[in-house]
Design a protein that fits this description.
The protein is an alpha/beta fold and 513 residues long. Helices cover 43% and strands 14% of the residues.
């Protein structure tokens, strides 16, 4: 399929060199766009989304396939199409897909305005980071494609900069544009823009809210890659929108608001009880009003919105029973409380990004302990229920009791729910096999995509060298023999070091079954 894509690129109408050819935009996997995430959210809201394993996926603005190609690796039975105006990026992506011998990925050098129903029908459509950076006619075309090319039970993902937080970003952007006026060379513009932000963050009057705002902006912008800052903050077009405005625009194209890509973004759990009650009074039963008022409270800057066809009957009750058909995972680790879930007292669990959960629920404690032991793997809900009941020592628990606990945890963003999960090895087998994509990527840099569709950094020569050897042809003796010259001076025997390194690779979800 990759070779065919290259041929199709040659036949496409050449729209000219784009800014994205001149300056590449960083291309990464974006977990919130994965068809598993989209199907999970659709299932929670009562839809019957197409099976992820056989999904037809379109990404608008695919770049070099940094988001789409990893999906193709882990979902060999699905079909992936990406379109992008940057010919250089598309060509590079086609080369990567060809090197990985992916027959289910096609990347096309194509203008969005040329996309018609002829391109095909898709179960999932992704448009990440596009809507706020294009003129109104292109926004219309984007939503037209999301309607006309979307399967009846399909889901579209559209991310965009939102107001009121977007006003702050607009202010900073316009100061950078003023400071870099007259500059043409991208690298010089980016350097000058960062220099201005550093200056304002350091010299704004102390004790003023403005200084805190500029320091917050500096924390984000100073570390941004050149391509990201050039195409985002310094772009010619930048139009953040109110959520209600976006929802009305989608409705004109016969699309309705389904949810956000992350359930916790819709939660009022971050609010005090009185504030949550007041929000209900303000919005009533209108989901659009509710989300808009929530943006007012949070000063939201960015949204990752899921859309579906207007005729779909969305059920917003989110019945806990819908979790029974799902797979559950959690990166939480117990950090306090009793060691035995059956013992009285609250257990404390902590995870990434300051995630924290404290619970005295017997079934909840037992479930999280079980999930901790199998991470990064998942467990089907009913398997988790059986194992958690055994660990809790409380006899049989009703499925909905566990489902309610897990739904609260999912809403708080401390566990994961899936309808599909790639085959990830928790432990290395006799001849360990790492992701072919990660083994390819490590040849060109330290950032690789794991089997959970997340970017991870493997810095240093040792991890890179070790990962490249995990091609399924070597046993532990082979690995020890080839790595011995590079492990000298490290603590432990060569065999112990090999085992430790295999554990690290497995923990990062890089090993295939």
């Amino acid at each position: 399929m990759a070779r065919r894509s290259a041929i199709m690129v040659a036949r496409m109408r050449a729209p000219g060199i784009s800014d994205y050819d001149a300056v590449a935009y960083p291309s990464y996997p974006w977990a919130q766009t994965h068809p598993d995430r989209l199907a999970t959210m659709a299932t929670l809201f009562g839809m019957a989304p197409p099976p992820v394993e056989r999904a037809r996926v379109l990404e608008i603005g695919c770049g070099d396939g940094g988001n789409l190609i990893p999906m193709g690796v882990t979902l060999p039975g699905a079909q992936f199409t990406g379109v992008d105006l940057a010919e250089t990026a598309v060509r590079r992506g086609c080369e990567i897909a060809a090197a990985l011998e992916l027959r289910n990925v096609r990347l096309l050098h194509m203008d969005l305005t040329d996309v018609t129903q002829v391109l095909g029908e898709f179960d999932y459509i992704i448009a990440h980071g596009l809507y706020a950076w294009v003129p109104e006619p292109i926004r219309d075309k984007l939503l037209e494609v999301c309607n006309r090319n979307l399967a009846p039970e399909g889901v579209a993902f559209v991310s965009y900069n939102a107001l009121p937080g977007g006003y702050i970003r607009t202010m900073v952007r316009e100061m950078m544009l003023y400071h870099t006026r007259g500059m043409e060379e991208p690298g010089a513009r980016v350097a000058a823009a960062k220099d201005l932000i550093r200056f304002l963050a350091n010299e704004a009057p102390a004790g003023k809210a403005y200084r805190a705002l500029m320091q917050s902006a500096a924390e984000d912008l100073i570390e941004r890659q050149e391509g990201a800052l050039f195409h985002d903050e310094l772009a010619e077009t930048y139009q953040p929108v109110w959520f209600a405005q976006f929802a009305r625009h989608a409705a004109r194209h016969h699309l309705q608001y389904l949810s956000e890509a992350q359930l916790f973004e819709m939660s009022v759990g971050v609010l005090e009880a009185a504030a949550a009650d007041r929000l209900v009074q303000l919005a009533g039963d209108d989901v659009i009003d509710r989300e808009q008022y929530l943006d007012f409270i949070k000063c939201r800057t960015f949204r990752q919105t899921l859309l579906c066809h207007e005729q779909i009957g969305v059920d917003r009750s989110i019945e806990p029973a819908r979790l029974r058909s799902m797979l559950i995972a959690s990166p939480l680790r117990r950090t306090g409380g009793p060691t035995d879930p059956a013992a009285p007292g609250a257990m404390i669990f902590e995870g990434l990004s300051a995630a924290r959960l404290e619970t005295d629920s017997s079934i909840g404690k037992a479930a999280l302990v079980v999930l901790e032991e199998v991470w990064p793997d998942v467990l089907p809900f009913m398997t988790l229920l059986d194992q958690a009941c055994a660990r809790a020592g409380a006899g049989r628990v009703e499925p909905d009791d566990l489902a309610r606990f897990l739904l609260r945890a999912y809403t708080a963003n401390v566990i994961e729910c899936h309808v599909h999960y790639p085959r990830i090895a928790r432990r290395a087998g006799p001849r360990p096999l790492a992701s072919p994509l990660a083994r390819y990527q490590i040849q060109y840099g330290s950032l690789v995509t794991n089997l959970r569709h997340y970017p991870i950094s493997l810095r240093g020569d040792l991890p890179a060298r070790f990962l490249r050897l995990l091609d399924g042809t070597r046993d532990r003796d082979d690995l020890a023999r080839e790595m011995a010259p590079h492990l000298a001076g490290e603590p432990g025997s060569i065999e112990e070091q090999i085992d430790r390194n295999l554990e690290r690779v497995a923990e990062r979800a890089l090993l295939q079954e």
